[in-house]
Specification:
The structure is a single chain. Helix content is 38%, strand content 14%. By secondary structure, the chain is an alpha/beta fold. It has two domains: 154 residues, Aspartate Aminotransferase, domain 1 (Alpha-Beta Complex), CATH 3.90.1150.10; 234 residues, Aspartate Aminotransferase, domain 2. The strands form three sheets. A seven-stranded mixed β-sheet has the order 4-10-9-8-7-5-6, sandwiched between helices. Helix 2 runs antiparallel to helix 9 and helix 3 runs parallel beside helix 9. The two termini are 20 Å apart.
């Protein structure tokens, strides 16, 4: 696979950008020499790099693309709003329309605030919980973004006092109960990803009764329950994991699939708790941009009326079944994602160094065969993925299995 232009542009980038490409998209997070470094375009369920190599896209911008790249009606709605002006001094009426739509779709939503990133929405949720309760301690479980309060031990990140934020493990009600007892009367909120999706780990469904148990403990300790549904919202169910599992939080952070790639997120929740946002400072220069909200409304229209999620679930179920059969036939020590909407073949890094090498060989082979999946991050499917795309994925997987 020709990656010459990708490599040349990367060298150019390193002269003006720290590391060339920052964060999770840096080349070291993939397999150097097998993956492109820069992409040129996307159409439907495929992407093309700067050297002209085409891939079936199983990462979809890390999740925002729920319909497909370059979705005509979504882009047209955004463009029409942009022609009218979209970064104005005051919000546009479309903000009200979108908030009303979210209230009809998401069980926890009675009031809505808009933001640009998932980190914005989860940080606002924490602030609202503290403002509402008058308490400061947050118990957290899962990945909630890159702000200081939800990171640990990274250079440049201050040591977070245990009086402010305390992590707890997923699917462990006893540990959560113990922390709530230990910090009795001081917990403002519990923030959790209702579906466990830690980096470099297989996706973890909630155990039977787990989410209901978290809800009960939050009520018993007068703590605000926050679901971080930035990834699961509008993907596992149009109402999110809370609708899928029948457990309603007090606040919900939403993002990614909300606007099919346009930068828009939301914090929704019970009216009585969201009212606390008026007593603290929450703001953003771009939160009211109508262009992104027009894209979100059109995206939600598709999700409601075009059987998008049914299509994704069916494609994913078929892919999941074939992948499981392949893994068993080749005797590979990997696990298959339990969620068909989020495919992932996970190589358990704890087993041996061979697993690390095998993972890189496997995912490098996928990339060379024209499938873009992340070696350590679960994938996604979109509405525009076709049966032919899935056949290409399966054929690439067979060759990748043979390679190890």
């Amino acid at each position: 696979m020709d990656l010459n232009r990708s490599e040349a542009l990367y060298e150019r980038a390193k002269r003006v950008i720290p590391g060339g490409i920052p964060g999770i998209r840096a080349p070291e997070n993939y397999v150097r020499g097998d993956y492109p470094i820069l992409l040129a375009s996307g159409a439907g369920g495929r992407i093309t790099d700067v050297d002209g190599n085409e891939f079936v896209d199983l990462l979809l911008g890390y999740g925002p693309i729920i319909l497909g790249h370059g979705e005509t009606k979504v882009d047209a709605a955004a463009a029409e709003r942009a022609r009218e002006g979209f970064c104005l001094n005051l919000p546009e009426p479309i903000m009200i329309e979108l908030a009303e739509k979210l209230v009809t779709l998401v069980p926890s939503a009675e009031r809505v605030l808009f933001f640009k990133t998932g980190s914005d929405a989860t940080t606002a949720a924490v602030r609202v919980a503290r403002a509402h309760t008058g308490k400061s301690l947050i118990l957290r479980c899962g990945y909630h973004g890159w702000h200081d309060w939800c990171l640990e031990q990274d250079p440049g990140v201050p040591v977070i006092s245990p009086e402010e934020v305390v992590p707890f493990p997923y699917n462990d009600l006893d540990r959560l109960a113990s922390l709530l007892k230990q910090h009795s009367g001081r917990v403002a909120g519990i923030i959790i990803t209702p579906i466990g999706h830690e980096f470099d780990r297989q996706i973890d469904p909630p155990g039977e009764g787990y989410l209901a148990g978290v809800r009960k403990l939050a009520d018993e300790h007068n703590a605000v329950l926050i679901f971080d549904e930035v990834r699961s919202g509008f993907r596992v169910h149009i109402g999110g994991a809370q609708a899928l599992y029948g457990v309603t939080p007090d606040l919900t952070a939403l993002g990614k699939a909300l606007a099919n790639g346009y930068p828009l997120t939301a914090l929704t929740g019970r009216a009585s708790i969201m009212e606390a946002s008026r007593s603290t400072f929450i703001s953003s220069t771009y939160f009211g941009n109508g262009m992104d909200m027009a894209a979100a409304l059109q995206t939600l229209e598709h999700l409601e009326h075009s059987r998008v999620l049914e299509h994704i679930a069916q494609l994913g179920t078929d892919l999941q079944r074939e992948m499981q059969g392949m893994v068993e036939a080749f005797g590979l020590p990997v696990t298959v994602s339990p969620y068909p909407q989020m495919p992932f073949l996970h190589f358990d890094a704890d087993l041996s160094q061979d697993q690390d090498r095998n993972r890189n060989r496997f995912y490098g082979a996928l990339a060379r065969e024209g499938v873009f999946a992340h070696p350590r991050h679960h994938g996604f499917l979109c509405w525009r993925h076709s049966a032919a795309d899935m056949e290409r994925v399966l054929e690439a997987c067979r060759k990748a299995c043979q390679s190890i």
